[in-house]
Amino acid sequence: MEGILAQLAAGFVGVFSPLNFAALAVGLLIGLLIALLPGLTLVMGVVLALPFTYRMDVTSAVILLTAMYVSGTYAGAWTSILFRVPGEPIDVPLLWDGYAMARKGQAAQALGWTLVAALVGGLAAATAMVLLSQPIARIALTLSTPEYFAIIFFGLASVVALGGASLANALISLFLGLLIATVGVDDTYGAHRFTFGVPLLADGIDYLIVMVGAYGLGEVFMRLELGFRSAPLESVGTAHTRLPRLKEVLALKGTFARSTLLGLIIGIVPGAGATVASFLSYGTEAQYGRRRRQMGEGIPEGIVAPQAAATSSVGGAMIPLMTMGIPGSGATAIILGAFLLHGLQPGPQVFQTSAHIVYTIFASVFVAVIGMCAIGYFAVRAMVRVLQFPEAIISAYVVMCCVLGAFAARNNITDVWLLVVFGVLGYLAERFRFPVSPLVLGAILGPLAESTFMTTMISFGNDWTVFFTRPVAGAVMALALVTLAIPLLRRLRQRRRIA
Amino acid sequence: MRDAPRLKRLLPYAVVAAATGFLYAAAADIRYPARAGVLGPDFWPKLILALMLAVCAWKIASALLWRGHGEDRGVLEEWMETSAAGHDGPPDEPAPERRFWRLAGGIALSVAYVWALPRLGFFGATAPYLAAFIALGGYRRLGALALLSVGGTLLLLFFFMKVVYVSLPLGQGPFQQLTLALMQLMGIR
User: Fold this and answer.
1) N or C: which end of chain B has fewer CB within 10 A?
2) Which of B39, B100, B130 sits opposite A396 (nearest CB)?
């Protein structure tokens, strides 16, 4: 414990070095602006920022992206409360009580509750992240390939079970992602797979191209087809933040505790993220909260529950990334990409070989949470003016960031062609209700899934039952299968009820 | 005619199944020095393709045999709907009209841009692309368009070549001369 605190203290010193602090400040500002703009999601923002980090050192690069991730869960609440326009899906539950409070003339109080919820949720989850990471990393060191495969399988199963309008479509998306990951020269045999004679495909398709294309360009094409129409905004007026009193905050300690814990757990589960945390936490409060009957009428619990859970999910999502090198969400996948670009593989070993980097990043999460709340307190009115900027211009520059990100990865124009292909694919997926997240997560986790599966098969003489007979692997696989079965069981139950 | 909506619903799965079949044939062609008792590099992609084919077959069969209208929806969508029930959502507005020509224009512009990039260089291709894309998006103030496209391109050129050290395409012939002249003006070596 003392060792962890000493390393964290050194991490705080590292965060305040000029370069790291500048990266953090820039990340916070851009993250807040991106969360405000409809059509730009926090994952997209983190994706687009990646090429700007190529020349940074690994710590500054990850600090910048993490700051964007943290602040991306916060600023969208402002537009939900003030204009009834959610910046992104995370902020939809904030409409229900946030806008209702604003309509009663309590917009300043609603913004104050959002700030306190983000602060409490963010700091509590960051503390849990610091305390849990080292023990989990120690456990991760004892795991073998069957357990790693089981954990990856669980991540893929949960993204399918959660995702979208159709389980079948989510599965097809996932398989497509896994297939994209197989393109190129196989590591063991040197065999060409799906390269079709194109030399650059022999190096494989970088998952960053898939992400930038599907999330960035695909979304721009979608909104271009709709003519970049955003909801008309009411006047910003005298928007400001009024913080609740300590007594009022303490009266909601149960809501704070429930939602923070829920956000943290959902963040840890691969495939789930801030949006799931926000909705589930609101739903839990509406079912079990002390004032559940008044939810939706404009009470602070309806703001605290989704906001605290969304921000605390960031701390949770960082745990599997740092301790096992498994990204559970789009944003953590990009952060993993930043690590790999700089030659550092997150995982249990990194706590021994590069502990100073890990703890500087951990410390930056605390500073980022406090920093975003400070900016939120002083600059709400100035920042929401960004909504008046024409979306056509923002989107054109988003495309530019996509192109530069794809080109800079390998300095090759073929990657830009692939970007356009994945942009069109992302558009088609969205249009025909095939969720994009399983495709992206499949492309990210595909190589790891294949290598752990094949290594297990080689080590255990092609005995696939090993995934079910070893205690940890078996338990995780069972959990994954239950997760996959949930949508089917719900459907059966609904059918029976109708019958 | 009565079956038209059902066939329309089946179409994406039939297309995916056909593509999967093609890729399975390609996977069967993967050449490698086989070792006895060890799975080859074709095993994993074949496994994925087989599962994909099974999902497509399930969807096609359920639509044809059981006229399955309902969907096995993801848990998230159900949670969202349950939580949202009875609450005010974002303002009700008529759904914006989809304009295919705008989408087709955007894709065509992007394809032309990627084609032009190595030929016209970053500046020569990006400035017109930005102007055209912004105009296509509905913003038509000429002065601002010129400033945003030319100024924005110069700013990106400076940032990526001078600060991030990304070697952006210079172009060919006179366009290369133009890019080099601009780089010299901005102090990029």
Assistant:
1) N
2) B130
Query: Per the structure block, which two tokens stand in for A225?
Result: 């087809």
Of A179, A283, A450, the CB nearest to B83: A283
pLDDT at A422: 92
Residues above pLDDT 90, as percent of chain A = 32
CB count in 10 Å sphere of residue A160: 29
Q: How confident is the model at residue B92 (pLDDT cuts 50, 70, 90)?
A: low
Contact B114 A417 (CB under 8 A): yes
Q: Does B75 reach chain A within 8 Å, measured CB to CB? A: yes
3-state helix, strand, coil in chain A (%, to 5): 75, 0, 20
**In angstroms, what CA-CA distances link A193 with A186, A497, B34, B44?**
7, 48, 15, 11
d(C-alpha A177, C-alpha A229), whole Å: 31
Distance CA A119, CA A114 (A): 8
Q: Which domain holds residue A414?
A: 2-498
Is A164 in the B-facing interface, judged by CB distances under 8 Å? yes
Counting the structural domains of chain A, the total is 1
Q: Which of residues 137-156 of B touch A (CB under 8 A)?
A: 137-139, 148, 152, 156
Contacts of A168 in chain B (CB under 8 A): 13, 55, 58-59, 71-72
Q: Taking all residues of chain A, what is their mean pLDDT, rounded to a whole number?
A: 86
Is the model more confident about A381 or about A132? Answer: A132
The interface residues of chain B toward chain A in range 114-133, judged by CB-CB distance below 8 A, are 114, 117-118, 126, 130, 133
Site from A26, A83, A171 to mutate, B interface, most B CB atoms within 10 angstroms? A171
Give the 3-state secondary structure of chain B: CCCHHHHHHHHHHHHHHHHHHHHHHHHHCCCCCCCCCCCCCCHHHHHHHHHHHHHHHHHHHHHHHCCCCCCCCCHHHHHHHHHHCCCCCCCCCCCCCCCHHHHHHHHHHHHHHHHHHHHHHHHHHHHHHHHHHHHHCCCCCHHHHHHHHHHHHHHHHHHHHHHCCCCCCCCCCHHHHHHHHHHHHCCCC
Q: Is A497 on the interface with B (CB under 8 A)?
A: no
C-alpha distances in Å from residue B29, one per residue of A179, A193, A199, A203, B75: 16, 9, 18, 19, 39
Determine, for residues B107 and A424 on separate chains, whether the beta-carbon distance falls below 8 Å.
Answer: yes
- Nearest Cα neighbor of A77 from A59, A102, A49, A53 is A102
> Does residue B1 surpass a pLDDT of 90?
no
Contact A7, A359 (CB under 8 A): yes
Among A231, A397, A458, beta carbon nearest to B90: A231
DSSP state of A55: T
Mean pLDDT along residues A435-455: 87
Best mutation target among A94, A173, A189, A417 (most B Cβ atoms within 10 Å) is: A189
